[in-house]
């Protein structure tokens, strides 16, 4: 069961949040054009004036019609320490022709032994997402983890050289900010010059902590920072997607009313008492975030491996999230406070675990809730100043902020087919329209001549635009369907002695012993150590099967013309 009722597409854009200067300019130019047409005579001066006005009208119209569209697919899932299912293909809907996947998980198994093992190798959840998306041409751009919080970002291979300035960070909000059982992880990057940020949150639990959840969310938005001058904070980005287990509940309604509304498909009767919806009416910063209609059933809490809600009396336990950001910001941090907070935090963890083991029940039964949410925010445009109004008719500024971002949400629902957790995964699909500020890779890479393991090969690369290159940069040989920047067959270091000039052609040798024997379709990728991403990809090329491999019986004879 995917949803209750039809989902209406939700559309938002960055020109609707303020009195748009460009709209005023467009109106002025149209009026000038009409005046020119009325007064048009045979003299050249009137014709030139009309031509200029037409040009400006078309330029301004272009600002409202972004030419590049990207398909984004998002998943948020509290996996409740479970191992991944064997098949997640239906969850990712791979036939949707998407450009970017953003996966936010909460409560990934993070026991000490498991967490250490995950540091040495990919955790099981990252592995299954990479194994599923890799063959479809998606590459893991980056990931960030804080205890049980995990954020994964995948992109189509063709977009890799244009996803730049990648940075990740995290914020703890559990146990006075010392424990990462709650909080947020984020990744920010430039997508063809447009600043985008994804924020995966896990906020305080329990019905009575709605205000604390708002405090935590605001604290996260205010304190997470990046080493980027023009977008140092989350809300400085042109486009922000916030998702995760926000833990907001449905207030006031009794369990019987909730059950009958869900079973009867009358979800609209519950919307007004959804705590996040209620808080958005009170908190201005929340009003900047948009969300599609909740036309799917509440995603928490289910009996595992079933579609039946778990309405048993809740287990009594001390809350492991006791962070109060606003009061703490007014307090002086003393050694006594630190020691007291840490001691109480450890005691709370121990007591909480002990009570859960005893399985003590409170008097209240669990009620279903929309705890798992996906929201987005387009940065509001600052209203023009009086000085800007006076010069608007002559301004031709076409800086990055002049180009709008249009976001259309095509899907917002849950996937009821997965039961490994007590939460159901929530998915959203978006169409994001924006202007590319550049479409040339920083580095051009190509393979020289034929490649096989029977002879040394060569590759060429050229720096096409200045960037923070380094002698620690390298060029990897990747088989088509590679899963991440480190999933190479072999690599060579770039020029070691000195950094090349822009447009200087550099050729590097590749030892035949490092070339795959069996051949296949490959690409070369230039990896920037400073930018921590691939900034140039070659066209795909064929590596021929080695004659030695044929002699050893590893491949059929006469394959690719080898005899």
Provide a descriptive summary of the structure in words.
A hairpin with a 4-residue loop joins strand 21 and strand 22. Residues 1-6, 16-20, 322-342, 348-363, 389-398 and 559-563 have low confidence and may be disordered. The protein has helices at 21-38, 44-63, 89-92, 112-120, 124-133, 210-223, 255-263, 268-271, 275-280, 284-287, 325-330, 335-358, 386-391, 547-551, and strands at 10-13, 68-78, 100-106, 138-146, 149-156, 163-174, 179-191, 194-202, 239-245, 313-315, 361-365, 372-378, 406-414, 426-434, 443-448, 451-452, 457-463, 474-479, 490-493, 505-510, 520-528, 533-537, 541-544. With 563 residues, it is α+β, with helices and mostly antiparallel strands. It contains 14 helices and 23 strands. The longest helix has 24 residues, at 335-358.
Ends: how far apart?
57 Å
Helix content: 10-25%
Shape: globular
Structural category is: alpha+beta
Q: Would you kindly provide a brief summary of this structure?
A:
With about 575 residues, the chain is of the alpha+beta class.
Which structural traits does this protein have?
disordered C terminus; single chain; alpha+beta; 563 residues; 14 helices; six-stranded mixed sheet; 25% helix; 29% strand; disordered N terminus
Helix-strand blueprint:
Blueprint lengths: L9 E4 L7 H18 L5 H20 L4 E11 L10 H4 L7 E7 L5 H9 L3 H10 L4 E9 L2 E8 L6 E12 L4 E13 L2 E9 L7 H14 L15 E7 L9 H9 L4 H4 L3 H6 L3 H4 L25 E3 L9 H6 L4 H24 L2 E5 L6 E7 L7 H6 L14 E9 L11 E9 L8 E6 L2 E2 L4 E7 L10 E6 L10 E4 L11 E6 L9 E9 L4 E5 L3 E4 L2 H5 L12
Parallel strand pairs: 2-3, 8-9, 16-23
Antiparallel strand pairs: 1-13, 2-14, 3-5, 4-5, 6-7, 7-8, 9-12, 10-11, 13-14, 15-17, 17-20, 18-19, 18-21, 21-22, 21-23
Helix pairs in contact: 1-2
